[in-house]
Write a structure and sequence with these properties.
This protein is of the alpha/beta class. The chain has 12 helices and 25 strands. The structure holds flavin-adenine dinucleotide (FAD).
């Protein structure tokens, strides 16, 4: 039987497997994690609004009734296209069709050393690390006298004014102004300064300008200062250095610097590019043919964030979930039709719009011809995100959690986890 190997159980890989449900193929789905992660809600975990398990679902549970899929927990490491062999870190297997949907990782534009100071948001571990950083900053400020050091703990810098940066900054604003109110005795959390840094001239630069403006107004309402046309030139523990387009330099003192400025393909993408002699783009994405196969390798398909698909618009398709999902469904159809000796027209992306929340009860959204913002945009955001969560149980849990958070202004998942605190260090720093 035709063996389809899928690497990655994210949006692209999972939807390929699900769409091959009733096809006469044998599928092996490989992921280095044992769960599918709903990344659009990672910022909610990072800011204590949801727990990690609310936005992740075990791959085995999702696919338990689909008899033609075997799930492997493993990490793809290398490939030999001539023999159709995929190497995992601890095993090897052969394929007839290979679907690569390994997504991306945080990109620091040639400064990997920034990562330890300014964590990005891509995994569950990133989210809990950021949550810890944000909550610890308030804890440390509570035990410091008024002064420069306390101000640095109460200053939060989010780098990157795309949807993730806007959502993170908005949620920190909500924590400072609402969630933590009356929780401390020596500090007033609402005095926290939250800065959002963007290199271009507006936040949400891929959205219509009108919605960028609406998002900016909401950010200001939540007390967030937005610096556009500012590039980060240096990050060190305790401060970040920025450069304006007029070449002025600014130093901002903060112990909570968060990165939301870019994604690049991971190590397997680079190994694949080398093995297939395909030249990746600057972000490490692999150019694909109109049918999503790699040039000269008709049985290797690359989809989602790892693919550079430039056969439809002036720019490559964006790294968003609907692109990965539609590509996964297309590949499933492609394989099915190909097995019947026929072929399929080129992949065509149907743009369903985009949306981002900007703090409590506020969001901007483009859905088809509709532009929504404020409370109505937020309701649309809530509904669509709830419906997209993979498991019904998570939908119910998230619905109740959000309703509770909305009514009480609380964020029950604001736990500091991952290592005990040294009380001396807490007092000293
Ligand atoms: C914080 C954040 C917020 C976002 N918000 C939105 C949003 O609001 N709307 C939207 O449309 N999109 C959003 N996105 C983008 C969206 O999540 C991605 O476009 C989408 O996840 C891409 O799907 P994918 O299948 O290509 O990769 P992913 O979903 O990233 O899945 C990749 C999978 O591959 C696995 N993997 C990686 N390397 C290997 C390996 N070597 N071996 C085995 N397994 C491997 C990973 O464990 C992972 O499960 C957001 C992304 C982030 C990070």
């Amino acid at each position: 039987m035709h063996h389809v190997v899928i690497i990655g159980g994210g949006f692209g890989g999972l939807h390929t497997a699900l769409s091959l449900r009733s096809s006469p193929v044998k599928i092996t789905l490989i992921d280095k994690r044992n769960f599918h992660l709903f990344q659009p809600l990672l910022y909610q975990v990072a800011t204590g609004g949801l727990s990690p398990a609310n936005i992740a679902a075990p791959l085995r549970a999702i696919l338990k009734h689909q008899k033609n899929v075997t799930v492997w927990l493993g990490e793809a490491h290398g490939i030999e296209p001539k023999t159709n062999t995929l190497h995992l870190k601890d095993d090897s297997l052969t394929y007839d069709s290979l679907v690569v949907a390994t997504g991306g990782e945080n990109a620091y534009f040639g400064h990997p050393e920034w990562e330890s100071v300014a964590p990005g948001l891509k995994t569950i571990e990133d989210a809990t690390r950021i949550r810890k950083k944000i909550l610890l900053a308030f804890e440390k400020a509570e035990r410091l006298p008024v002064g420069k050091e306390r101000t640095a703990y109460l200053t939060f810098v989010v780098i990157g004014g795309g949807p993730t940066g806007v959502e993170l900054a908005g949620a920190i604003g909500e924590i400072a102004h609402h969630t933590l109110r009356h929780n401390f005795r020596n500090i007033d959390p609402s005095e926290a300064q939250i800065m959002l840094i963007e290199g271009t001239d507006r936040v949400l630069s891929t959205y219509p300008p009108e919605l960028s403006e609406r998002a900016l107004q909401s950010l200001h309402r939540f007390g967030i200062q937005v610096l556009t046309n500012h590039m980060v030139t240096h990050i060190q523990p305790g401060h970040v250095q920025l450069q304006t387009d007029a070449n002025d330099r600014i130093i901002m003192y903060s112990h909570t610097i968060l990165w939301a400025a870019g994604v690049q393909s991971g190590t397997f993408g680079l190994a694949l590019a080398q093995a297939t002699q395909v030249q990746p783009d600057r972000a490490g994405r692999l150019p694909v043919e109109p049918d999503l196969s790699l040039p000269a390798h008709p049985n290797i398909f690359v989809i989602g964030d790892l693919a550079h698909f430039n056969h439809q618009l002036d720019a490559p398709l964006p790294g968003v979930a609907p692109v990965a999902i539609q590509q996964g469904k297309y590949i499933a159809k492609h394989i099915r039709i190909h097995l019947k000796g026929k072929s399929l027209p080129a992949f065509k992306y149907k743009d369903m719009g985009a949306m981002a929340t900007v703090g409590r009860a506020s969001a901007v959204a483009v859905i088809g011809k509709w532009k929504l913002w404020g409370f109505v945009g937020w309701l649309a955001w809530l509904f669509i995100h709830l419906m997209q969560l993979v498991e019904f149980q998570n939908r119910v849990l998230v619905f109740f959690q959000w309703s509770w958070n909305y009514l009480t202004r609380n964020r029950a998942a604001r736990l500091i986890t991952g290592g005990l605190l040294d009380p001396k260090k807490l007092k000293k720093t």
